[in-house]
Amino acid sequence: MRRNITAAVSAVALALPVGNAVAAANRSTTAKVTPKKKVVTLQKTVTGPQAQADRWGYVQVTLVVKKTTTTVGAKKTVKRTITSVTVPVYPNHTDRSVFINQQALPMLEQEVLSAQFTGGVSMISGASNSSYAFIQSLQAAMLQAQKV
């Protein structure tokens, strides 16, 4: 009886390391490798052309766009965000033009920041000509930003 127990314990002791090695090999071949995540951020300033605001003058829009490219394995996603909007050129040759544009342009800039690239920018009542010209220049600047 003692021999049988000793033989059985010896067989288990010899088989145990082999079984652990086989299990470890199976785990390493079936385990999924998590792909590395790579994020690249680029910031670019784009300027639309000057657009005619009827007889009042020109409006020009400048955007600062942040482009974030995320790569995980073979999957690549690109996200563009407008971080800043400025209007370096606007009608300011009369007191009335200055007053209208000081009221309307900050509202239009805020509309762009809240709408981002969805295109939901509303016109400003009382500043129709400036609004039309702003949107024209904005559209051209957004098209340039899409190419970044």
Explain this structure.
- With 148 residues, this protein is an alpha+beta fold.
- The protein folds into two domains: 1-31; 46-63 and 86-146, no CATH class.
- 47% of the residues lie in helices and 29% in strands.
- It is built from three helices and four strands, in the order αββββαα.
- Strands 1, 2, 3 and 4 form a four-stranded antiparallel β-sheet that branches.
- The mean pLDDT is 85.
Provide the descriptors you would attach to this structure in a database record.
2 domains; alpha+beta; 148 residues
Number of helices in the DSSP assignment:
3
User: Mind summarizing the main beta sheet?
Assistant: 4 strands, antiparallel
Number of domains: 2
Q: Structural class of the helix and strand makeup?
A: alpha+beta
Terminal residue distance: 82 Å
SSE string, helices as H and strands as E:
HEEEEHH
Average pLDDT, rounded to a whole number, is 85
What does the radius of gyration come to? 33 Å
Number of strands: 4
The proportion of strand residues reads 25-35%
State the helical fraction.
Answer: 40-55%
Task: Write a compact overview of the structure shown.
The protein is of the alpha+beta class.
Topology:
Layout: H1 2-30, E1 37-47, E2 51-52, E3 58-72, E4 75-89, H2 95-115, H3 128-146
Antiparallel strand pairs: 1-3, 2-3, 3-4
